[in-house]
Amino acid sequence: MARAARHWSARAAGVVAASLLIAGGTAGVTYAAGTGPSAVAAETYLPTVEITSNFAVVATPHPDTVGCNGYNVTGTGTSTGRPVTTATWAQKEVVCTATVPGKYDIKGTATMTEPDGDRLNISYALTAPLTSDTMVYPTGTFKIIGGSGNYEFAAGSGKMTARVNLLDHDHVSSSLLGDILYLG
Q: Is 77 helix (H, G, I), strand (E, B) or coil?
């Protein structure tokens, strides 16, 4: 008799546990369906690209003095952040003052090369108001256009900002904030 009571007690406990598991699981599903994936994603978003670069630039007059009326700019320096922890920065860009009225129109590419040789390549498009001020703060977007090593099949995009003192070409900075995807 005592043995039957133990079996009945064990079965009852199992049924109660299963009921709680099913009810709890259903409540979780109902909650998740009620909030939607966008609400959950918004609370947990963390950018996968956060890179700060500091570099020096050299500007030479652009040959098209009518259609562009600007500069060819090259730059070299360093980048830190993620996904690159430490890298060299090399850029080439064209800065025009005639393509967008009242603004600098900046189009360029940059390569960040890590110590092991892996390269992350980006293209970018920025604008900034034409002013008499010597400080310029271009803003716009960047796109990841692949690379080599860990970044061979990388893609992604985000926001880019820069800080340029037109009288000090040795201390230019930029920031990238966005996402990277590994497609390969």
A: strand
Whether this model's pTM surpasses 0.90: no
47: buried, middle or exposed (CB in 10 Å: 19+, 13-18, 0-12)?
middle
Length of the chain, in residues: 184
**Maximum distance among all alpha carbons in the chain?**
103
Q: What's the CA gap between 184 and 180, in Å, rounded?
A: 12
Residues with Cβ within 8 Å of residue 36, at least 6 apart in sequence: none
pLDDT tens digits, residue range 83-101?
A: 999 999 999 999 999 999 9
Mean pLDDT score of the chain:
84
How deeply is 46 buried, as exposed, middle or buried, from its count of CB atoms within 10 A (0-12, 13-18, 19+)? exposed
